[in-house]
Amino acid sequence: MSELKTMKTMQKEVDAYISSFKEGYFPPMELIARMTEELGELSREVQHVHGMKKKKSSESASTLTEETGDLLFVLICFANAQGIELTEALDTVLNKFKTRDADRWTKKEEI
């Protein structure tokens, strides 16, 4: 089993890969379009696995893991291109949810 990567490590790894090409990162709107495409592919796979619409025998095999990875890759590309540090972005949104929505959902009892 491989060691877990930090978000910072993932961002650096994606940046090293993209930086190895002259073209570099796609423009922001292209990355958003790619993210939308990848989200659609993930949605389709969720439908195949958990929904009523099952995969046709002629459709190529893909997995939730693969499609989630594709979406994550493009999201990291977008964050890198925009100078967004994803750990900081996640910490900010989690803090918002913990304060704004503190009493919104039914909490589980602690053991």
Q: Which features would summarize this protein structure in a list?
A:
single chain; 4 helices
Number of strands: 0
* Rg over alpha carbons: 18 Å
The shape, in one word, is globular
Structural class of the secondary elements? Answer: mainly alpha
Counted by DSSP, the helix tally is: 4
Secondary-structure element series: HHHH
Helix content, binned percent: 55-70%
Please outline the major beta sheet.
Answer: none
Distance between the termini: 31 Å
Query: Average pLDDT value?
Result: 92
Descriptive notes:
With about 110 residues, the protein is mainly alpha-helical. About 65% of the residues lie in helices and about 0% in strands. The protein starts with 6 loop residues before the first helix and ends in an 11-residue tail after the last helix.
Compact description:
With 111 residues, the protein is mostly helical. The chain has helices at 7-19, 28-50, 64-82, 86-100. The protein is globular.
Chart the SSEs and their pairings:
Blueprint: H1 7-19, H2 28-50, H3 64-82, H4 86-100
Helix pairs in contact: 1-3, 2-3
